[in-house]
Amino acid sequence: MPETLLDLATLGDLLRVASAVDYRRWEEQIRRTGGCADPIHLTGWTLHKDKTTGETLHHYSTEREPGGRLRVACGNRRASRCPSCAWTYAGDTYHLIRAGLAGDDRRDVPATVRDHPRVFATLTAPSFGPVHNRPDHGACRCGTRHAPDAPELGTALDPDTYDYAGSVLFNNHAGQLWQRFTNRLRREIAARAGLTQRELKERARLSYGKVAEFQKRGALHFHAVIRLDGPDGPDTPPPSWATVDLLADAIRAAAAHSYTSVSVPAAADQPARTFRWGTQLDVRPVKAFGDGSDITEQAVASYVAKYVTKAAENTGTLDRRIGELPELDRHGVPDHARRLIEACKTLDPLYPDRRLWAWAHMLGFRGHFSSKSRRYSTTLGALRQARADYRAAQEHAALGLDNDREPDTVLVLADWQYAGHGHTPGESVLAATIARNLQLNRETAREALRDQLADEREC
C-alpha cells in the first residue's frame, strides 16, 4: 500500500502523459536532466553547417519534441526544491573541496598540495538565549532527555526572553564577520612568522573553501577548509615555518580577537550590538585518506558537499522568498522559525540597507552560502564547463560532426527562447519515479565498485 494516494486529477494527467505517442521521447528528455523536478522549457533550433561547402551537417528543432519544447535541468542547489540537481551540485562541490585537499591534475591542482598545512575549522554563532538541546551528559536544562528527532530541539526555552532580533542580525552580518576573520587571520599568521603583512604576501598565501550551515536554533555557523600555500598558491610549497600547529593557533587567536567583530548601530527600540564568533570553535587537522582518522580529505569534502544543498529549511522556514506573513500559516511554519521571520519583518524598516525582509526565508542571511578563495582549487564554473564539453563531444560524435573534419570548420547557428518551467501534476509523479530509479542505479554501481576495490585489496 503506497504511503500516499494520487488524487483523481493527478492520476488522470499521469495516464495522459504515459499513454501519449511521444512519451518515450519525453521520458528520454527527463532522464537527460537527471529526473529534474522543475526543468526549464526551451523552444528554438540549432544548425550545424560546413564553413567551406555550406553543407548542412545537422539541424535540430524543438518543433518535433513533446509539446514543442526541450527540457533542461533547472540547476537549483537546494535539495528541497530539486533533489536531482542538488545531487549534481553536491558532487561538483565535493570535487572542488577535495581537489584543494588531495590535488587533481585534471583541475590544475598538484598532488603536492596534500603536504601543505590544512585544517577543518568550524566557527559558530554566539548565544542568543538558552535552547532545548541534547548535552553529552545529563538532560536538557528543561529537565528532559530529548530524543534525537524531538521537534523542540533548538527552540527557545523561554521565547519571551530569547533574542530573536539579535539572531537574525547576526545572520545578516555573518558574511562581513567572516571577512574580518580572514583579514585578522593573515595578521596572526604574519605575527607568528615574524613577518609584516606585506612580507607574508611574498612568502605565503592563505586559501580556503567554506560552507554555511544553519543550526536548529536558526543561527549560522561556517565550516571551512583553511590551507597555507606558497606565494603563488597550491603550485608552490609553503615556507618551512608554516605548520598545522601555527595555522590552528592563528585561527583560534583570530576568531577571539576584538578586531574580528561587526558593530550594528542602535535603531528605534533596538540597542547597538557588536557581533563576534561564539566560544565554540573547533579546529582539526585534515589527514590523508586512509590513515584511520575521522577528519580525512574524503570525509571533509563529503561533509561540505552535504551542507551545500541545504539552507534554513531544517529550522522549519520556507525554501523561497516570503510574500506576506500569512504564508507561514498555510505552510505550518513552527513557532521558533516564525518568530525569527517576524523579527526580519519588524527590523526591515529600521535597517533598510540590510534587506532583512527580502532574506527572511534565510532568517536574515544574505551572503554566499558557499564560497572559496581565488586560489583554493578549481571553480564550479570550470567543473560545469568540463561536463558540458564532455556531453557536447559525445553528441558531436553520435552525429558524426567531428569525423575527418579540420578544427573550426563547422559553423553553429542557434536561436533559443525561454518557454516556462516545471511539470504538470502527472509529469511530476513520473519524473520523481525516474529520479528514484537513477539514484538507485548510481547507488548500486557505487556499491559494486566498492566491493570490487575491497576484493582487489584482499588479493
Structural notes for this entry:
This protein is of the alpha+beta class and 459 residues long. The radius of gyration is 26 Å and the shape is globular. Strands 9-4-6-5-10 form a 5-stranded antiparallel beta sheet, with helices on both faces. Strands 1, 2, 3 and 11 form a 4-stranded antiparallel beta sheet that branches. The chain has helices at residues 8-18, 23-32, 83-102, 164-193, 197-203, 244-256, 297-308, 326-330, 335-347, 380-399, 425-458, and strands at 40-50, 56-61, 70-72, 118-123, 205-214, 220-229, 262-264, 273-275, 281-285, 370-372, 410-421.
Which class of secondary structure composition applies to the elements? Answer: alpha+beta
Q: Strand portion, in percent?
A: 15-25%
- Helix content, binned percent: 25-40%
Estimate the global geometry from the Cα principal axes.
globular
- Strand order across the largest sheet: 9-4-6-5-10
Pfam family, one: RepSA
InterPro entries: RepSA, RepSA_streptomyces
Organism: Streptomyces atrovirens
Protein name: Replication initiator protein RepSA
